[in-house]
Amino acid sequence: NGRTFNIVVNEYYENLSGSFVKGTDGGDVTGDGDLLPNSAIVLQANVADGFTFDNYYTSADFKTIASIPSTIVEEELVYYAKFTRNSYVLNFVVDCESVQADNSIAHANATVSRSGGKATATTSGGAVTYNSPSVNSSGLTTIKYGAAIGFSATKNSGFEYAIYPNDSYISAITTVPTTMPSANTTYYVRYTRNYY
To answer: Could you tell me which of 99, 107, 101 has the C-alpha nearest to residue 164?
Structure first.
């Protein structure tokens, strides 16, 4: 008879403040729309970079997980897809060059302190500060995808610093991204002495 039933999926994603808002920033769902009676329900959650698909729920309060039938038998089914924002490790390895008594060069690791959602890595050559809203069981900063990194660096008189993407300390980069990428990330900051 050509009559169709409708399946509706409302996508919600976690914003940076931790609230869930309607939209497809976290991903979208295919397979919804008008279906013939007894048609197979095949929903596919397509997840955006930096997010995880949590589940389908019966309402936007996300308290009850939906039990989705294999075929459509009602006139309308409505679900709420929940996409959560991922957190990733943000690490700064900071050290400073020092000249030993035999004129050899050594590198002393920074002392890291955390206060008020910030981490500061201090060396004799200067300090690096970055956002540190939470810390994992290994003592490393975790930060949500897309959140501000808040990187800044100061240098003491007689010192310079460079930022490197890996521990080979080759090919310095000019800056750190302003927001957290969708991967665990480590930057290496090395303070060196100026020689006159």
So the answer is: 107
Residue 51: count other Cβ atoms within 10 Å of its Cβ.
20
3-state DSSP: the chain helix, strand, coil percent, rounded to 5? 0, 55, 45
Q: Check residue 148 and report its DSSP letter.
A: B
pLDDT band at 2 (very low <50, low <70, confident <90, very high): low
In sequence order, the 6+-apart residues with CB closer than 8 A to the CB of 106 are 97, 98, 99, 100
Checking if the pLDDT of 29 tops 80, the result is yes
3 state DSSP class of 145: coil
Task: Choose among 9, 15, 11, 16: nearest CA to 148.
Answer: 16
Which residue do the tokens 């409708």 mark? 6
**In this structure, how many other beta carbons lie within 10 angstroms of the beta carbon of residue 32?**
21
* 31-73 residue pLDDT tens: 999 998 889 999 999 999 999 999 999 999 999 999 999 998 8
